[in-house]
Write a structure and sequence with these properties.
This protein has about 80 residues and is an alpha+beta fold. It is about 20% helix and about 45% strand.
Length: about 80
């Protein structure tokens, strides 16, 4: 596996056009799961902002379980369809 960013997914965050981008990246000597908010600059380019987080891949399964639990809870409470 090359030591670079591997884009996984992106989604629109708001009406301004900000995006949430998910990737697997090599950072500080380790692979990380990275979620970052990108914003559009005045020249139309998308740039990463400070908002977001990264966790080492050994925590990814635990994080995915937490997100799945949050999704199931939100659905069961009628917060999502």
């Amino acid at each position: 596996m090359s030591k670079s960013s591997m884009p996984i997914a992106s989604m629109r965050k708001n009406l301004r056009g900000d995006e949430i981008r998910v990737s697997l990246d090599f950072f500080a000597g380790a692979y990380v799961f990275n979620t970052r908010v990108f914003f559009e600059t005045t020249d139309g380019a998308m740039r990463p902002g400070k908002d977001g987080f990264a966790i080492k891949l050994d925590k990814l399964e635990e994080y995915a379980a937490a997100v799945t639990t949050a999704l199931m809870t939100a659905k069961s409470k009628g917060l999502l369809k």
